[in-house]
Structure formats: C-alpha cells, structure tokens
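Minutes, project check-in
Item: structure for the 223-residue chain
Input as provided by the requester:
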Amino acid sequence: MEKENKNKGKEVHPGESGLKKKLVKEKEKSVKEPEKKEEIKEKEKPVKEPEKKEEIKEKSVKEPEKKEEKPKEEKVKKEKTEKKSVQEKPKKTEAVVNAHNLPVSTKHSAAICKFIRNKKIESAVADLEQVLVLKKAVPMKGEIPHRKGKGIMSGRFPKKATQNFIRLLKSLSANANHNGLENPIIVEAIANIGSRPYGKFGRVRKKRTHVKIKVKEKKEVKS
C-alpha cells in the first residue's frame, strides 16, 4: 500500500521522456555542426591558395607577351612611313583639258586654236576677252573681210566659240595649278569635227567640235 501511495505522489507523464531525448539530440547536433564547418574551411583554404598563385603566374606570363607586341607594331609603322616617303609620286610636267561635242563651228575653233598656241594661259584669256569686245580679231583664211592689226589680213569675231574657249582655258589653269606648274605655256591646241546630230525633221545637221588643249612647263618646252 505504501508503495502505491509513493507512485501516485510522483505522477510521471508519458511525454516527458520523449522531450528529454529530443533535447539531448539537438545539443549533440549543435556541438557537431561547428566542428564540421571548421573541417570544411580547413579543406577549402589550401585548395584556393594554389589556384590564385597559378592565375597570378599566368598573368605575369601574358604581360611580357603584350610588351613584345608593341615594339613590333612600332617597327611596322616606321617601315610603312619609310615606304611612303620612298614611293613619292613624280611631279607632273603637263596639264590637259578635253571637250567633246561642243556646239561650236569647227572652222572657228581651229582658227582660235592657232590664235592661242604658244601663249601663256592668262595672255590667251586676255586676248579672247578682247575678241568678245570686238577690239581684236581672230585671224582666218578665206574670203573674209580685212581687219586692222599687225600681221592680220582677214579675220572675224566668233563670239560663241570664244566664250567656250575662255571657259576651257580657265579650267586648264586650275588643272595646271593642281599639278604644280609655275609657268605653263599652251603647247597643243587641236580642234576636230564631232558627231553632228540631225536637227528638226532631218533637214539640218548641227555643228559639233572636239577640242583638246595641252599645257607644259616653260623649261621643258623646246625653243
């Protein structure tokens, strides 16, 4: 009877033993986890350090290669500049202007070509401007009225042809300037008949002329 009374006073619950076991397991886990973390850290450290060292070595190997490439590029650039200086274009000694199918009389343009030849561009332009003002005649052959002036028997004032020739001579002076000619003289002045198109209803054939004017440096012109 006394034993039964003692057991009743204690009143042990069935769930208490299970809770104690859980608490014990949790404590064991909490003790084991930091130990595992320390082991993992110790394993990782020696692996990472050599990898970094290898990367540093690779970089140090690559850097001198880049340094070696720069002097090579500089050498190539120097060689190119030297080649350019060697391969300078020869200086041009002449300039040309060509005109195709000008709406001008071939007879008049041939006379103007003869009038211009062996003159400087500026003096030729000045003479042609005087022709436009009817102060100077272009010498021509044939049954043409006589004109006043030195060495002129007969001549005319071809307005349309002179205007076209002045335009060509101005363009020729620009070409001579570009080619570096200092004292250009007209060496060649040629006028040839071009392809003459038919007019309205095919009754008339229009005038067309090809013109070529060449200029050279005064030194190279043979006297």
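Outcome recorded: The longest strand covers residues 184-193.
No further action items on this chain.
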